[in-house]
Amino acid sequence: MVKVVILGQGYVASIFAVGLERIKRGELGYYGVPLANELPVKIEDIEIVGSYDVDKTKIGEPLYEVVRRYDKGEIPESLKGITIRKGVHLRSLRNLPIEATGLDDEMSLSDAVEKLVGEWKELGAEVFINVCTTEAFVPFESKEELIKAIEEDNKERLTATQVYVYAAAKYAKEAGGAAFVNAIPTLIANDPAFVELAKESNLVLFGDDGATGATPLTADILSHLAQRNRYVKDVAQFNIGGNNDFLALTDKERNKSKEFTKSSIVKDLLGYDAPHYIKPTGFLEPLGDKKFIAMHIEYVSFNGAVDELMIDGRINDSPALAGLLVDLARLGKIAIEKKEFGTVYPVNAFYMKNPGPKEMQNIPRIIAYEKMRMWAGLKPRWF
Ligand code: NAD
Fold first, then answer.
1. Which of the listed residues 16, 133, 137, 326 should we mutate to test ligand 1's pocket, taking the one with most ligand atoms within 8 A of CB?
2. What confidence tens digit (pLDDT) does each residue in 208-232 have?
3. Nearest C-alpha to atom 32 of ligand 1 is from which residue?
4. Ligand 1 centre distance from Cα of residue 296 (Å)
């Protein structure tokens, strides 16, 4: 069994919940889940035991009803038994057309942390999956600064994700182990303050920012060109989408947080920094969850010939990440069993846009995939 707690019951988390239950009912195959059912921990073993949000219209509602807002198909009855609980918001829905409420409106951060830890004990939580709205944040770098901000109830300095990880560390210390999957851009696995805290608290950290959409594809194409010693002159890549995540990114401060995602990806993979523009670019409501991506790469081939690659796509945003989460929940459980506390680079390098820890680089994902399989005890696929 893998007992999962969701933080942020939006589009991604709802598709995750529906897809998981449909797999359990034998209605779906494993497409979109990289490791399918190869791991010793089976997909059918994953159980969502709790879910948190800060949207007033979701708190207190059955998960079944919230999920219905995102998936128009038949929703599995098994989602009726879970009620959305109140999290901490710390301005995470600021400037969005959503009314927020959180434990932080009623109590100090230390008390909110105690309350969450108490609830997680009751639920027997093992893996936390963070898919809250993209936040504007400042990393901590020092564990002492982080602890001080919590103790001083510094609600301006902390984001919700930072408080959730702090609470998960406290919980993991008492429970003997837990895992936190940070699928959003806030630096956690790349912030030494959290990695140090996790190591001494029996907490596994995966992060940061799930690698879906155009970025991993760009990374694979850059590796392909690097292996053939073609010289990349420039890279342009953009995304336009119509879901709430893209709406949130129209807020300047939050968009900056996506840019934190190692824009060194180009340098890491090519060995030099080709001029590039790689950013989420805009919100266009009618596109819904099926975003438009485009990529243009110019490079020099033999005898100075200049080639151009142009790729366009319409990609369903939420299912792409939800499928990765099905693996990450199970890998979280495996990492707890292996006692690999702190952050786990072989997992991050494949699944995350910004793989922690901070000092580690992006590597070609075709290599990261094999290394991740070996870490998980599976046979390499092509080596
Ligand atoms: P969404 O807006 O549909 O869902 C986010 C949910 O989080 C909402 O229900 C919101 O009310 C809730 N929330 C906000 N602050 C919270 C808090 N402090 N505590 C608890 N709940 C909170 O967005 P989404 O499309 O589901 O994306 C979720 C996250 O995943 C985003 O941060 C995004 O950057 C990240 N992400 C998505 C993809 C992808 O969709 N392919 C890829 C990488 C990363």
1. 133
2. 999 998 888 998 999 999 999 999 9
3. 134
4. 28
* Closest among 344, 376, 371 to 360, alpha carbons compared: 344
The chain-wide mean pLDDT, for the chain, equals 95
8 lines ligand 1 (CB under 6 A): yes
User: Is the whole model's pTM more than 0.90, yes or no?
Assistant: yes
Which residue puts its alpha carbon closest to atom 38 of ligand 1? Answer: 321
Reported as a single tens digit per residue, the pLDDT across 62-100 is 999 999 999 989 899 999 999 999 999 999 998 899 999
What is the residue with the minimal CA distance to atom 12 of ligand 1? 8
Give pLDDT, residue 128: 99
Question: Which tens digit of pLDDT belongs to each residue from 346-358?
Answer: 999 999 999 999 9
The closest residue, in CA terms, to atom 43 on ligand 1 is: 210
Predicted local distance difference test score (pLDDT) of residue 257: 66
In whole angstroms, what is the distance from residue 151 CA to residue 149 CA? 6
User: What value does the mean pLDDT take over residues 330-346?
Assistant: 98
Q: Confirm or reject: Cβ of 7 under 6 Å from ligand 1.
A: yes
Q: Is 60 left (phi over 0), alpha (psi -120 to 50) or beta?
A: left
CA dist list (Å): 63 to 59, 217, 233: 9, 33, 49
Domains of the chain: 2-210+319-375 (3.40.50.720), 214-316 (3.30.360.10)
Q: Comparing C-alpha atoms, which of 255, 256, 181 is closest to residue 8? A: 181
